[in-house]
Amino acid sequence: MVAVNPSMRERLLEAATELFYAQGLRAVSADKVIDRVGTTKVTFYRHFRTKDDLIVAYLEQTAALERQSVGGAIAKADGDVDEALRFIGEEIGKAACAPGFRGCAFINAAAEYPDPESPVRRVVDAHRSWYQRTLDQLISPLDLPDRATAAETLLLLRDGAMIAGYLGEPSRTADAFLRGCDAVIHGGRR
Predict the structure, then answer these.
(1) Looking at the structure, do residues 87 and 125 belong to the same domain, yes or no?
(2) What residues does the HTH tetR-type domain cover (predicted)?
């Protein structure tokens, strides 16, 4: 098997992903990314017009990976809502227990970019909208009196699980998320 060298754009994005998540979006300059990759400013700006363009690419890539993970969990559950939420909770728990976990990249980005009109916030908002729609579709087979509110609450639980996984005890995150999901969709009656 022949190894494929990543393109310069991919290398810049990979370095930015590591740095942005570990240190924060505003704390990492374009120069830090350029130094990490060992390239020039001219090369950087050939691939990304601005640092915000790089941040948007980082968040879009992160969103694609999260969507793939959530989609895989839902597919694996084969129509069983409780199983899908369990699989999603397990993924959140695994992420929270991974070395270097700093919570949700989207919540972190929103904290650093409060202007809802910024390109960064638009990516954050689009991903959150996707997540809420996905949860709404997931629970659609259930006969819930207010499915939209339930989906909104499930997203809130996911956000809380990501924060608790960073600030609290990561090993308890998945179970806490599932208890909350159970309370929302079954009224805690199981």
Answers:
(1) yes
(2) 6-66
Q: What is the CATH number of the domain that holds 163?
A: 1.10.357.10
**Domain housing 43:** 1-49
The per-residue pLDDT of the chain, averaged, comes to 94
Tell me the C-alpha distance between 75 and 46, whole Å.
Answer: 39
Query: Are 59 and 108 contacting, i.e. CB atoms less than 8 angstroms apart?
Result: no
Mean pLDDT for 121-147 is 96
In this prediction the pTM is 0.92
| DSSP assignment of 3-21 | PPPPPHHHHHHHHHHHHHH
* Region of 98 on the Ramachandran plot (φ > 0 left; ψ -120 to 50 alpha; else beta): beta
The 10s digit of each residue's pLDDT in 12-60 is 999 999 999 999 999 999 999 999 999 999 999 999 999 999 999 999 9
Helix (H, G, I), strand (E, B) or coil at 140: coil
Alpha helices in the chain, H assignment, sequence order:
8-23, 30-37, 41-47, 51-77, 81-97, 105-112, 119-138, 147-167, 173-186
What pLDDT is attached to residue 37? 97
Q: Are residues 100 and 129 in the same domain?
A: yes
